[in-house]
Amino acid sequence: MPSSNPSAPVPQGENEPRLDPQSLTSNRTDPSQNAPTNVDYTPHPESSMKVSEERAEIVKKITSLYSGSASEEDMRVYAEKAVYDDPWSFCDTRWKVAGQ
User: Fold this and answer.
1) How many CB atoms lie within 10 A of CB 76?
2) Is residue 77 a contact partner of residue 62, using CB atoms and an 8 Å limit?
3) 0.85 cut: is pTM over it?
4) Residue 91 gets which letter from DSSP?
5) Mean pLDDT throughout 48-67?
6) Staple partner for 91: which of 31, 47, 73, 84, CB 3.0–4.6 Å?
7) Predicted local confidence at residue 98, as pLDDT
8) What pLDDT, on a 0 to 100 scale, did the predictor assign at position 52?
């Protein structure tokens, strides 16, 4: 979907630009302190841990919650009396936690 803001930067192709993390975070004064550059960040699902169908369903529901496309059933993945507490918010029901 094209941006309605004409001054907004247009992503390259269909994806957002991918910056080079090494160039952004490298230690130029002491390169010996840099992380290895041969790290492969490409997902390899065939090498991932296998999870049960039940856990895969939980992951799917939580992913829906965090992407803003959850159903009422997805919210039930949290316990009825779930509590979420951090320095910025406090939630004491599954509905508040899911809305967080």
Assistant:
1) 14
2) yes
3) no
4) E
5) 89
6) 84
7) 67
8) 94
Q: How far is CA 51 from the centre of its chain?
A: 19
Tokens matching residue 63: 């992913």
Say how far apart CA 83 and CA 100 lie, in whole Å.
Answer: 11
Residue with tokens 């949290």: 78
Cα separations in angstroms, 76 against 41, 51, 90, 94, 98: 33, 20, 18, 7, 9
> In the numeric block, which tokens belong to residue 84?
């979420």
The predicted-structure confidence for 44-53, as pLDDT tens digits, reads as follows 889 888 899 9
C-alpha closest to that of 78 among 56, 61, 90: 61
Place of tokens 């699902």: 45
- Both tokens assigned to 53: 């169908």
Q: How is residue 31 written in tokens?
A: 């390169």
